[in-house]
Amino acid sequence: MTGTVNRRGQGRRFGSFVLPGHHAGFSVLPVLILAGILAVVVLVSLGIGGASIDSVKIISHLAHKTGLVGTGTDDFTARILDSLRLPRIMRAVVIGGVLGVAGAVMQSLFRNPIADPGIIGVSASAACGAVAMIVFGPEIWGRFYPMVGPYGVPMAAFAGAVLATMMIRALSRQEGYTDAALMLLIGVAINAIAIAGVGIFTYLANDMQLRSLTFWQMGSVSGSGQADWPALLVMLAGAGYLLTLGTPLNLFLLGEAEARHLGVEVESLKQRATIITALVVGAAVAVSGIIAFVGLLAPHLVRLVCGPDNRTVLPASALCGAILLVLADAVARVIVLPAELPIGLVMGIFGGPFFLFLLLREKKRRRI
Amino acid sequence: MTLLAQNVSFAVQGRPLLRDVSVSIQPGEVLAVMGPNGAGKSTLLKVLAGELAPSRGCVMQNGRIIADMAAMDLAQERAVMPQAASMMFPFAVRDVVMLGRAPFRKISPHGLDLRLVDQAMEQADISHLADHPYPALSGGEKQRVHLARALVQLWAVPDNPGPEEPSRHSGIIYRYRNKWTKDREIPSIHGSQGRFLLLDEPTAGLDIAHQHALLQLARQEALQRHVGVLMILHDFNQVTGYADRVVLLRRGAVFASGPVADVMQPALLSELFESPIRAVPDPGGASPILVGDIAVQTQQAAEADGREGDAALSRKSFRAG
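ok -> structure tokens follow
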């Protein structure tokens, strides 16, 4: 035992900062810091847009709403915050968080750092389901369409995600055993098929349907009011469950056989994790359309800073995904005022190069 | 109190890999498994570990059929050191070893975990690598990390927490606190149940010093802590030097088994491996050394070459004709 060994096991891996004196595994500090950043980003994001609102007004409004102080801010500001910005920013927080944690879970499950709900076709299949419902819904439901109305499309998105996940699992199973590498490749194929499906349905759509189709392909957190509530609840519950899988997913990183030797019911874990992930991703796509990249970018950013322990990575990825999406939404709202850019585009334009920068930096560091 | 395979058969797509194999491992003994490539050694180990379900027969651990046991219960009684485990994520070595404590995460105090991890790393000679990222290690170093991980799993929640201090804590009941319970007794797994360590070619990829250190460690676990050890080995002299009993496998069936002195006979081994093996006296030791007879082998190889040459010649002449 050398003198320099850190007895706390809070190992100092590449590019992580030392946080002395806390329990090995779950690191409180990075999670707290990220929560703080999220609060600041939300506050700033509430203030910017068509009409800028200074943060004192926002805080006094929030304090009024939560019953802390008697008087709030003026009516005009209150209305902008309540009916426009708060709902969409809360949506961005929930969806970003869900996509972040779903990406982290998938990467552990496939034991592969490039796995992501977007890459294995879950998001695209959800979009495919939604688009099919937009184009064919009126004919399928006939006179019941107004009743199904706002719930039909999210349900279809959700069904698409679950169907894709079930297909990927069924195709990659062999004699009761799932091959993770094969599963990833099958997911890539499903993704291609789903994207083609979206293309075909788009081709069949009329002008009015086309308008709502762009939303599914490029993403938006503007939402559709109360119809989003069931999906948001599913997301919160599912993400809450995924957050508890930190330790088993750590063992999973060693390999499926090793995880079993260490007491994980491997097949059952795989089943639960993939189904819940499909559930939350399907719900996220149902609310916001395809928003690529959050599931990839957030966990990678987190691992660079806090190391690969899933007990920290899962909650931190949720927070980081929420931060990214709130930022992207803020940019989307102000960059082409008075119009609005699809949030998926913003994630691609800024997220892509940023991810490249991170990868190149890592590559250089490993070579030295 | 044994790990027992009873008339186990295992087949993949109709191809039998194990045929009617019965093996038992008693606590406190080291059992070696030997055999030519493809004899079913690793398959047997996987069946014993519960990783593969036998197509016929059953595996019992401490009197319970393992197919009916929860993975967690199994994990608390036996540890497995795999042949090779890959991990792409940059966990620190210490954290990988700590994963071996996962089966006890609800019953083991964190301080004990840390102490056991330190001890295991010291025994596996990886203390100096504790903070290195696992993916950057060499093959042999990775093997030793998995040895340490298997050791901390095997040590469960012991009465005596380590080889350095074998009696210091015996008789003391560990107590710990958390948010919900006040003092709570930690069930001692040691003593009540037999524990088993399964090693799949543990010496592959290790240098000679670490090979002997590892085998010594396995032996010590068996003797001092009454662990039943099964290891797949390829070196005759490591078997004679470190094992109590040996099982020889051929084409999925037990070829011979028994005490090392009875089974490790040149004639039997020559037949099993279809390669001449003889015993030469060891000037420094009591038991003879088993060696592959190089002279005979070369001669046979030359003969085989000759035959091959003749065959080639006859084919050529056939074609010419």
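Confidence is low (pLDDT under 50) at residues 160-191, 313-321 of chain B.
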